Amino acid sequence: MGSAPTPHIGAAAGDIAKTVLMPGDPLRAKFIADTYLSDVRCVNEVRNMLAFTGVYQGAPVTVMGGGMGMPSIGIYSFELFNFYDVGAIIRVGSAGGVASDVGLKDVVAGMGACTDSAFAAHYELPGTFAPIADFGLLAAAVDAGRERGVDVRVGNVLSSDHFYLDDPSSTERWRKMGVLAVEMEAAALYMNAARAGKRALCLLTVSDLPLSGESLDASERQTGFTQMMEIALSIAATSSEGA
């Protein structure tokens, strides 16, 4: 479709691995690269949306920030899928727990992504599209969590366009429909993957419970996020060949 580099990613063709881990925060991408990857190279600094390519358990992996919200991850995931021939993107982010049995530090895998966004409108579909994860990546996340003693919660998440709600009671209505957690990017990632014929998964650590007001402090977030990162990296290491 296009060629690298793009208006938003300065990496050259071949600089991006077939599997990409995508936190929202580019500094979290740096943390993952510094902590887990060997032979690391910084391959993008455009708009300070840092991207690093290295090796994890013998497999090439890229970690790149995706920003906040569906417009941001929509741009980066589109360019990665279509201009860099990335085969799989695993979002690693934080979320607000919504379901009554979801607690702080829980790891959630978005099997599907409800949304209040109009992101799908540009596809001009004659109905409502249901954004879903790649089943192979999803099953691998559950298995990797089990190996580490982590019960990965699987179900619907809500990808919202709104962080500050004018009507906070809307979160309760999503809970009634079985939504596990709320975040801001998965639906756009899943739609871009579907359109490109690629693979995607959203892994989340529950950092706060908006309906009760509970939240993790900074040190607790780091511990919980590390579990999620290690699950995602294990998937990346085993899925690179099939990405």
From TrEMBL:
NCBIfam families assigned to the protein according to its UniProt record, in alphabetical order: deoD, PRK05819.1
GO molecular function terms listed in the Swiss-Prot or TrEMBL record: purine-nucleoside phosphorylase activity; uridine phosphorylase activity
Name used for this protein in its record: Uridine phosphorylase
Chemical reaction(s) catalysed: uridine + phosphate = alpha-D-ribose 1-phosphate + uracil
GO BP terms: uridine catabolic process
Family: Belongs to the PNP/UDP phosphorylase family.
Domain Nucleoside phosphorylase: 19-223
PROSITE patterns xrefs: PNP_UDP_1
Record keywords: Glycosyltransferase, Transferase
Enzyme Commission designation: 2.4.2.3
Principal EC category: transferase
Lineage, top ranks: Bacteria, Bacillati, Actinomycetota, Coriobacteriia, Coriobacteriales
Organism, as annotated: Coriobacterium glomerans (strain ATCC 49209 / DSM 20642 / JCM 10262 / PW2)
GO CC entries: cytosol
Coiled coil: none
Alphabetized InterPro entries for the sequence: DeoD-type, Nucleoside_phosphorylase_CS, Nucleoside_phosphorylase_d, Nucleoside_phosphorylase_sf
SUPFAM superfamilies: Purine and uridine phosphorylases
